[in-house]
Each structure stands twice: as structure tokens, then as C-alpha cells.
Amino acid sequence: MKITKLSYKVLFGVAVLLIVIWTLVPFYWVLISAISPRVELYAKPPHWIPENPTLKPFYTVLVTGEGFRGGGGVSAAELIRKGLYNSLVIAIVTTTMVMVFSPMLGYAFSRLRFPGRNLWFMLFIGIIALPSWPVLIGLFSQFSYLRLLDTKIGLILLSFTFRIPFETWFMKGYFEAVPREVEDAALIDGCTHLGTLFRVSIPMVMPGLIAVSIISFLFTWNMFSAPLVLTYTLKSKPLTVAITEFIGQYFVHWDLMSAAAIIAIIPPVVVVLVFQKFIVKGLSAGAVKA
Asked: How far is CA 170 from each of CA 122, 176, 180, 201, 290, rounded to the nearest angstrom?
């Protein structure tokens, strides 16, 4: 029996170690690629520890902005700055819209009684199951017709459309965890349903609202496939897509692309570290209810 428990612990430890290695090694290699001189970066066998580390790639993509092959006349710094600005605008506006509409929709599906409520809810959250790539084929045609191609507004509407069913589903669960007696007391005191929502219900589910807002921000920030298809200039390309400009036809600027990737990782990491207690508390505060 003791041997079995020991074997289980050993296997569990090995599995955890493999998962950690699988997760961290790619990130470590990106970091090494960002601080290694090109001589070491392209050396064989690869250098896992740079002998002459440098921050020149970061300085290039943030300050000096020297040109690069395949840049189309755009400097590296301009590319990253515009991509960073576009990502921030798209992510912040989308998250704000989610924070406004998801609690109202979640409250409506949780508390209000109207014909076909369950059917409408199932159709609404059915958007979650839609695969992204096949949908993009039709979206490209629709975006072209509506003149939303290569616009930040188009990406905001797209991200919001795909996020709002998931966040509404979560918010519905949070509201169902709130005792109805509290809301009934507010209604008896003269509050409308809208007043009860903003004065009573939302403050009680605030950790959950913050959690789904952070998840929405992270999802929007990390969008790649849709912006890759629906944008083609720096006017609206987010950072995740702008980084691909470092890939030319005959040459890849691995050092600049890796430095830009590290920069793209920083905002979501900071958001998670700052709001991690809200994420844990919010995701465990009744979101499992349907």
C-alpha cells in the first residue's frame, strides 16, 4: 500500500514537472531569442544561455525604430507602437461594453420571465460553440459589405459578439446565487428592476463581474486569427498581428519578433497579477450554475 502511494506521488510529480517544462520552455526560448545577439541566435547548436546578452532588440522595437526587411518602409518602433495602441483600444472598449451589457443580459435571463426565455438563452449561448475559421469566411464577406474591413470598430464588434454570450452565461449564474429575498425587498421599497440591478444585485456579484471582464480583456488582447484575416494595414492591426510583419519572404527577424512578443505578454500578465484574487473569487462564486 505504501509503495502504491509512493508510486502515485512520483508519477504525479513527474507529470507536473513535464507540464511545467512544456509550458515554460517556449517562453524561455522566446526570452533567450530576445536578448541574444544574432550571431548566437543563429548558431548551431543553439545557445540556451546567451554568452553576450543584449537589450538591443527591445531598444530597437521601442525607441530607435530601425527599418527591417519586409517592413514596407515602416520602422520597427512604429510597427509596435501602433500595434500596441490598437490592441489597447480594442481590448479596453470591448471589455467596457462587456461590463455594461453582460450583467443586464445575465440579470434578464436569471430574474425576468418572458415568453421563450429558455429557448432564447440556448440560442444566445449557442454562439459559443461556433468554430472560428469557418465563420471567418462569411464574416469577411459581411465586413466587406458593411465597410468594416481593416477597422478597429469592426474588431471591437466582432470580439464583443463572441464574448457576450459566454460572459452572459457566467453572469446568469452569479445572479442566481444571489438570494431573491434581497431583490424582492428592494422591489417592495419601490425600486424598479433596473434600479434593483444596479443598486443591489451588481454590487453583490461584483467579484464575478470583474472576473468575466478580465477574461474578456485577455481574450480580446490575444485575438489573432480574426484580425489576421480582417485587417491589412497598421491602422487597425493589433499587436498580435503586427508582430508577424517581422516574418519576411526570405528572412525572419527572430530577435525583434521575440522582443515584441515579450512586450505583448506584459499587459495581460500585469492584469492577471493585479486582479488574480478577483479571478479566483469570481470564477468560484456561483458561475457553475446554469
From this structure: 13, 10, 18, 14, 8
Residue 235 to residue 82: CA distance in whole angstroms: 8
- Using alpha carbons, select from 53, 136, 105, 122 the residue that is nearest to residue 212: 105
User: Are the C-beta atoms of residues 175 and 111 closer than 8 Å to each other?
Assistant: yes
Maximum distance among all alpha carbons in the chain?
76
CA gap 73, 20 in Å, rounded:
41
Q: What are phi and psi of 271, to 5 degrees?
A: -60, -45
Q: What are the domain boundaries of the chain? A: 1-54, 68-283
Decide: 189 and 199 in contact? Cβ < 8 Å: no
Q: Rounded to an integer, what distance in angstroms lies between the CA atom of residue 153 and that of residue 140?
A: 14
Set of cell numbers at residue 140: 469577411
Residue type, 232: Y
Q: Domain spanning 68-283 has what CATH number? A: 1.10.3720.10
Report pTM: 0.84
Q: Give the number of other Cβ atoms within 10 Å of residue 219's Cβ.
A: 19
Q: How many residues does the chain have?
A: 290
Task: For the chain, 290 residues long, give each residue's pLDDT as a single digit of tens.
Answer: 555 777 778 888 889 999 988 988 888 988 998 888 888 877 777 778 888 888 888 888 888 776 655 555 678 888 888 999 999 999 999 999 999 999 888 888 888 788 887 888 888 887 777 777 778 888 888 888 889 999 999 999 999 988 898 888 888 888 888 787 887 787 787 777 777 878 888 888 888 888 888 889 999 999 998 899 899 888 899 999 999 888 876 777 888 889 999 999 998 888 888 877 766 665 555 444 44
Are the CB atoms for 57 and 256 separated by under 8 Å?
A: yes
CA gap 254, 69 in Å, rounded: 12
Residue 33 contacts by C-beta under 8 Å, 6 or more apart in sequence?
Answer: 41, 254, 255, 257, 258
